[in-house]
């Protein structure tokens, strides 16, 4: 990883930003770096969980539940909750999450017919709040970060991977990858990106050591 970062133009004292879904598998690797590192919760995962809450609340949105509330009180409160998550105001989104949970309880009491939908919304809200509170140290002001040119999500990478896998392994294509073939392609790509193909070829195929190949990062060819 350190070699990859150096090849990508990172050098001490640069800071490395790690986008994570909350699983800190890379923590041990990052701690061995000479670089400062910062962990940011991937907005793609937060957004998906907020979307589930949104979809669950939508059928329940209409109706005033408190004297000072609007006709779309549940929806208004959810929008504010989502906004404070977006700008990284932890105290505010925690307060609005508690208010939103209270309104859902009121809705269940006043409308027993909607109990199933209310409980679905409460469950989705509880999931996202637990997720955020478990990773509160990795939350940032996503709006400011994005305006400054920082990346807030790896969703584009995941969608590209899903599209490639879908076309090459799931769809009815004339030429498809097998599981073994796909694994081999990935190992080859990793070796190329890590500039380890030369050593890999020498270990696996010593009989072709006299042949030569030119890589994109080299101006002259070399034997492998």
Textual characterization of the structure:
The protein has helices spanning 2-7, 27-31, 43-57, 73-86, 90-110, 115-134, 142-147, 155-170, 179-193, 197-204; strands at residues 15-20, 36-41, 212-213, 222-223. With 224 residues, it is mainly alpha-helical. Among the domains are: 2-41, no CATH class; 43-138. The strands form two sheets. Strands 1-2 form a two-stranded parallel sheet. Strand 1 (15-20), helix 2 and strand 2 form a beta-alpha-beta unit. Helix 3 (43-57) packs antiparallel against helix 6 (115-134), helix 4 (73-86) runs antiparallel to helix 5 and helix 5 (90-110) packs antiparallel against helix 6 (115-134). The longest helix is centred in the middle third of the chain and has 21 residues, at 90-110.
Indicate the topology.
Blueprint: H1 2-7, E1 15-20, H2 27-31, E2 36-41, H3 43-57, H4 73-86, H5 90-110, H6 115-134, H7 142-147, H8 155-170, H9 179-193, H10 197-204, E3 212-213, E4 222-223
Give the terminus-to-terminus CA distance: 24 Å
Beta content comes to 5-15%
Work out the helicity level. 55-70%
What is the N-to-C order of secondary-structure elements (H for helix, E for strand)?
A: HEHEHHHHHHHHEE
In the sheet with the most strands, the strands line up as 1-2
* Morphology: elongated
Q: How can the largest sheet be summarized?
A: 2 strands, parallel
Structural class assignment: mainly alpha
Number of beta strands? 4
Briefly say what this structure is.
The chain is mainly α and 224 residues long. 56% of the residues lie in helices and 7% in strands. It has helices at 2-7, 27-31, 43-57, 73-86, 90-110, 115-134, 142-147, 155-170, 179-193, 197-204; strands spanning 15-20, 36-41, 212-213, 222-223.
């Amino acid at each position: 990883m350190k070699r990859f970062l150096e090849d990508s133009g990172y050098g001490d004292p640069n800071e490395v930003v790690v986008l994570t879904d909350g699983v800190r598998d890379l923590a041990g690797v990052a701690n061995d770096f000479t670089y400062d590192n910062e962990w940011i919760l991937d907005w793609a995962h937060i957004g998906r969980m907020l979307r589930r809450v949104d979809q669950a609340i939508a059928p329940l949105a209409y109706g005033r539940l408190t004297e000072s509330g609007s006709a779309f009180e549940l929806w208004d409160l959810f929008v504010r909750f989502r906004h404070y998550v977006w700008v990284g105001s932890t105290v505010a989104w925690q307060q609005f999450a508690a208010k939103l949970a209270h309104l859902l309880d009121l809705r269940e009491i006043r409308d027993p017919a909607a109990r199933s939908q209310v409980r679905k919304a409460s469950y989705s809200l509880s999931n996202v709040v637990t997720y955020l509170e478990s990773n509160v140290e990795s939350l940032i002001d996503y709006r400011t970060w994005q305006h400054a040119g920082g990346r807030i999500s790896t969703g584009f990478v995941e969608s590209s991977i899903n599209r490639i896998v879908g076309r090459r392994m799931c769809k009815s294509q004339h030429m498809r990858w097998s599981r073994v073939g796909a694994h081999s392609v990935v190992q080859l790509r990793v070796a190329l990106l890590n500039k380890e193909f030369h050593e890999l070829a020498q270990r696996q195929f010593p009989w072709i050591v006299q042949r030569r190949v030119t890589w994109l990062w080299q101006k002259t060819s070399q034997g492998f």
